[in-house]
Specification:
By secondary structure, the chain is an alpha+beta fold. The protein is built from ten helices and seven strands. A seven-stranded mixed β-sheet has the order 5-6-3-2-1-4-7. α5 runs antiparallel to α6, α8 runs parallel beside α10 and α9 runs antiparallel to α10. The longest helix is centred in the first third of the chain and has 24 residues. The chain starts with 7 loop residues before the first helix and ends in a 5-residue tail after the last helix.
Length: 315
């Protein structure tokens, strides 16, 4: 299959030009620049994938659209209104209700980012204004929380320090306060549309395994397949933490590599499908398992690896 992909100089120039356009456009409409960037990048990626499937030359405009979209997104992200620390957070324990934006496990700790919807003081302090940003919770590893869940958190919150490197990094990610080991109550999922359908499918898969297998085997298998921790017994959770094997039940490169490798092997005789179908399968699996930071990073790396093999690029 012949391609008409522009050379590196043209792509780099397009990226820089798109950043300059984004710098001009962002002050007038940050959301507009971000939406255009997402649209261009998605259109370029989808068009390139379709060309590969039908075994047609890739039009030069598609890679240019993809690179231009990335440039606009880069400018929109860099020029977004900066977050400020939640300095109004009191020293007393307060109750926060919000939606989980990200949840992942690193080693023996779990980190959950929550978009705050409401704040209520549990003591003498009066506080009713939610911060303009997210709070990060440090919990025991493998918390029983998924992205999109609504949670009630009771604990002490500490404003991030903008004068430290770690504090500046948290602010760039939209995190304005942190809390260590608060009390967390899961109020249920708030997702709707296709993501809600995938969530129900994940729950049905977990329930089917729980009915077919005893514990802790069922909880371990659910974790291996879709990274779900809700089915795990506390004994299994603590055993995984103690032995340092929590990455096995967190969707990451291991799980996604198995999915991509299995699909590429099954489609060995299909020239176009050997690249596109594994990539689609990887992202469907990532959506099914929940869009955590580790799963998105692994899916991006798998997409690059499968694409490189398809176009004959060595590692």
């Amino acid at each position: 299959m012949q391609t008409r992909i522009p050379n590196g100089l043209v792509l780099a120039s397009t990226f820089v030009l798109a950043i300059l356009v984004g710098v001009w456009l962002a002050p007038h409409g940050h959301q507009l620049a971000q939406s255009i960037g997402i649209g261009l990048a998605a259109a370029g990626l989808a068009g390139t994938s379709l060309s590969v499937v039908v075994r047609r030359p890739i039009p030069a405009g598609l890679p240019l659209a993809f690179v231009a979209g990335l440039g606009l997104l880069r400018a929109a992200t860099a020029l977004a209104a900066p977050f400020v620390p939640w300095t109004e957070a009191p020293q007393e324990r307060i109750e926060v209700v919000g939606r989980v934006d990200a949840a992942e496990t690193r080693g023996t700790a779990g980190f959950v980012q929550v978009v705050v919807e409401s704040v209520e003081a549990t003591g003498r302090v009066g506080l009713d204004k939610a911060p303009a940003g997210m709070v990060r919770l440090t919990l025991p590893a493998l918390p029983s929380i998924d992205v999109g869940d609504r949670v009630r958190v009771v604990g002490r919150f500490q404003s991030v320090d903008p004068n430290t490197a770690s504090g500046q990094g948290l602010l760039r990610r939209g995190i304005v306060a942190v809390s260590a080991l608060p009390d967390v109550e899961n109020l249920g999922s708030t997702t709707s549309g296709p993501l809600a359908l995938l969530g129900r499918l994940r729950s049905e898969l977990a329930h089917s395994l729980e009915r077919a297998l005893p514990q802790p085997q069922a909880g371990l298998l659910v974790g291996l397949l879709v990274g779900g921790q809700q089915s795990m017994t506390e004994d299994l959770r603590q055993a995984l933490i103690a032995t340092g094997t929590t990455p096995l039940v967190v969707v990451s490169g291991y799980n996604i590599t198995l999915v991509a490798g299995a699909l590429m092997t099954a489609l060995r005789g299909s020239a176009g499908g050997r690249a596109v179908i594994p990539i689609v399968g990887v992202w469907l699996f990532t959506l099914l398992a929940g869009l955590t930071g580790s799963s998105i990073r692994a899916a991006l790396m798998a997409t690059l690896a499968v694409g490189a093999r398809r176009f004959g690029r060595g590692t």
